[in-house]
């Protein structure tokens, strides 16, 4: 099975130490024994901090995006180091490079690609581009909720939702790095049009990636309708 895993930067770089990188490296190595694995890494707090500096300099949102992309690629390079010889030792800057590097038979790890595309969008486009069987988005919450679970105690986990319904939920939201609306419109449109099996799960426990791949009931499953 060909899998694309999107790992939020807020998961990997949360505590500024090596442990999450190491834990994910171990999980990804095991998955790669049976599956073809692509990984897209987010920027997390470091990206947001640098983006704010660029925004304060009034350089424009495209420049903010560009700096954020560079941070995602640094996070990707750190994961390359953790994976050692199990991974292709170069971060693709676009989808064609990712596909070309995958001919090596090794794990592929990348960050962002270009302005106006979140790493969630990148993972969805990549999944379509390489004809993945499954997309797993690992974030800081258990899945998609009826409202922000960090703010509302009555927020309910949505175990299953169609791509069309999800588009309606986030329509009109100003989706930026660091907001609860962790999937942007582009990502959902890609999931819908490519009929891509997608799961959103909590990435704090790297084992959830394994559970999602095995088809265990976890997080939120997006049905491509």
CATH topology: Carbamate kinase
Shape: globular
Going by helix content, strand content and strand pairing, the class is alpha/beta
Portion in beta strands? 15-25%
Count of runs of 4 or more consecutive helical residues: 9
SSE run: EHHEHHHEHEEHHEHE
Tell me the number of structural domains: 1
Record the SSE blueprint.
Elements: E1 2-7, H1 9-12, H2 19-32, E2 36-41, H3 44-56, H4 61-83, H5 95-101, E3 108-110, H6 119-129, E4 134-139, E5 160-162, H7 163-170, H8 185-193, E6 197-202, H9 207-214, E7 220-223
Parallel strand pairs: 1-2, 1-4, 2-3, 4-6, 5-7
Antiparallel strand pairs: 6-7
Helix pairs in contact: 2-4, 3-4, 6-8, 7-8
Report on this structure.
This protein is of the alpha/beta class and 225 residues long. The chain contains nine helices and seven strands, in the order βααβαααβαββααβαβ. A seven-stranded mixed β-sheet has the order 3-2-1-4-6-7-5, with helices on both faces. About 3% of the residues have low confidence.
Features:
alpha/beta, Carbamate kinase, ATP-binding, seven-stranded mixed beta sheet, Uridylate kinase, 9 helices, 225 residues, kinase
């Amino acid at each position: 099975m060909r899998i694309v895993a999107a790992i939020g930067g807020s998961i990997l770089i949360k505590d500024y130490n090596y442990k999450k990188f190491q834990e994910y490296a171990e999980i990804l190595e095991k998955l790669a024994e049976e599956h073809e694995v692509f990984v897209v890494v987010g920027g997390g707090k470091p990206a947001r901090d640098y983006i704010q500096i660029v925004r304060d300099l009034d350089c424009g949102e495209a420049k903010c995006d560009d700096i954020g992309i560079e941070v995602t690629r640094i996070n990707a390079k750190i994961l390359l180091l953790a994976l050692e010889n199990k991974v292709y030792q170069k971060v693709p800057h676009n989808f064609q490079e990712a596909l070309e590097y995958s001919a090596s038979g090794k794990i592929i790890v990348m960050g962002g690609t270009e302005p106006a595309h979140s790493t969630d969008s990148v993972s969805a486009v990549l999944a379509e581009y390489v004809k993945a069987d499954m997309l797993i988005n690992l974030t800081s919450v258990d899945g998609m909720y009826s409202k922000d679970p960090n703010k509302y105690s009555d927020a309910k986990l949505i175990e299953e939702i169609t791509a069309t319904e999800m588009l309606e939920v986030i329509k009109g939201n100003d989706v930026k790095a660091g907001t609860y609306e962790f999937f942007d419109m582009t990502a959902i449109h890609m999931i819908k049009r490519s009929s891509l099996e997608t799961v959103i799960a909590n990435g704090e426990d790297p084992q959830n990636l394994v559970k999602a791949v095995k088809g265990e009931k976890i997080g939120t499953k997006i049905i491509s309708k």
